[in-house]
Structures are given as structure tokens and as C-alpha cells.
Amino acid sequence: MSPHTTARLLSIIVAEQPCNASGIEESEMPYLHYPKPETFDREECTCNLVRYFAIMSQQRSGSGWFETLLNSHINVSSNGEIFGRRERRTNISAIVKTLDKVYNLDWFSSASKNECNAAVGFKWMLNQGLMAHREGIAEYFKEKGVSAIFLFRRNLLRRMVSMLANSHDSHAKLLNGTHKSHVHSAADAQVLATYKPKVNTTSLVSHFRKLEETAAKAVESFKSTRHIVLYYEDLVNNSTKLIEVQEFLRLPYRELTSRQVKIHSGPLSRQIQNWEEVQKTLKGTPFERFLL
């Protein structure tokens, strides 16, 4: 960003808001916003700067759990999987209209907070129009100063188990006739974990290769935007990763918590019906590491 553009942005911030904008580092300016919602009066939070973010992920990669962690922060509102609705992603115009509503704080969900927001965003699956319109979306992110949080799973075989089990339960409804993608008790998790899917090994290697290529292409498409790449396993095993996330969003530090309980844990050999066949298929390939 040129010095002229930077100075112009600061002038706009100072001119439009009766707030003290001094002390803001020039490198941070594109990511700081004073939203002006149309649906409510933000008077008490007029001078509270807000950062925009999007959690970009793939289904069953821990994004739901991760979002509950973020929403446990008193100053964060992450509004769920808003592009799950097809009409919101039919074209780039529909996408931009939805994004504007979210970042202007005119999007209401269970994540909406009474406190002054320090960061607002949502989660976005790569197959929900994100990759199809990635160029236009990346341009929007750069223009609006949106920070991208990529969240993937290192072990794609465990992700597949979760996908197959979740798909099965959407029909079987093992929990008293109710389908739940996420649970809040160990008892419910144990019930859902009783189902052991059979993995189709015919295209397993090519499937994993395509998933990794898609993730790499997504990160590459947003390399010119402010972004961070996270992995579910790292967040689970290393508590400092959540500190890094809060630092990335420039949030005041809080202990982040979630009520969600992990459904599939323990050795994969106990979770896959045709485990020996899967072992044979993956051994000697780059994806043999998923067997651990």
C-alpha cells in the first residue's frame, strides 16, 4: 500500500468518526473499522474499532468447535455457516451483499453480542461458492480489510470417518430420533461413535490428493490478503495456538472454552469397518501417515 493511500485511509477514519484515531499503526489501518449498522444504534460502541474475519474450512474439519471457542470470547461474534444457503452464493453480487450485511453488523444470529464487538465474522466452507468465486472474494477481502483464518485437518482419514458417520446419522438419527452434527455430552458422543463406517478404498488416494490440492489452491488464492493457516490437531494438542489466534485478531486475551465433546477418539482401527483394506490401500503412499 502506497504512503498516499495509507494517509488517505487515516484521513477518512479521522474525518468520519468523532474518535481519537491516534496511535494506530499504519500497517493496521486497513483492518480497523467503524461499522455503521442500519438496523440498530451503535452509539455506545461508536469508537470501538472492529476487525473483520472469515473462517475458511472444509466440512468436518473442526470449524464448528473452533467457532464456539471464538464465540466464547466476550468481544467476538462469529455468525456460523451463512453460505450454507444457496441463494446467498449464486453469484459474486449475492455474496458481496451478504458479506456487507455481516460486516456492517446487520446480521443477527445466536452469536450476536450485547458487548461492543472487537471482531466479527463467520465460517465459510470451501465448497460453498468460496472456490468458485475466489478471485472476487479475495479482492473484496483486500478492499475491506478482512482477515482470513484457514482451518484444515492434517489427518484426512479421520475427517472421512467423521464425514461418513455424520452422513449416516442424518438418516439413522441415533440420538432418540434426532440428528446431531455436534454433541455436548460424553454419553451422546459414545452413542454416535458406535457406528463404524466402511470406507470406499477404490478412489481413496485420489480423493485425499484432491482435498490437499483444493486446500493449497485456497490458501494460494488468498496469499495477498492477511491470513493465518491453522490445523485442527494443532489447536487440540497445543494450547498456545489459541493464543496465536487471539493475537492474530488483536483481541484482548481470554480463556476460550467450548461445550462440544469430541465424537471420534482413539485408534482408527476401532472406527473403520474395513480397516485392513484401508491399511493396504494407503501403505506405500504419501497418505500412509494417516494410519497412525
TrEMBL record:
<dbReference type="InterPro" id="IPR000863">
    <property type="entry name" value="Sulfotransferase_dom"/>
</dbReference>
<dbReference type="InterPro" id="IPR052796">
    <property type="entry name" value="Nod_factor_sulfotransferase"/>
</dbReference>
<dbReference type="GO" id="GO:0008146">
    <property type="term" value="F:sulfotransferase activity"/>
</dbReference>
<comment type="similarity">
    <text>Belongs to the sulfotransferase 1 family.</text>
</comment>
<dbReference type="InterPro" id="IPR027417">
    <property type="entry name" value="P-loop_NTPase"/>
</dbReference>
<dbReference type="Pfam" id="PF00685">
    <property type="entry name" value="Sulfotransfer_1"/>
</dbReference>
<protein>
    <recommendedName>
        <fullName>Sulfotransferase</fullName>
        <ecNumber>2.8.2.-</ecNumber>
    </recommendedName>
</protein>
<keyword id="KW-0808">Transferase</keyword>
<feature type="domain" description="Sulfotransferase">
    <location>
        <begin position="55"/>
        <end position="254"/>
    </location>
</feature>
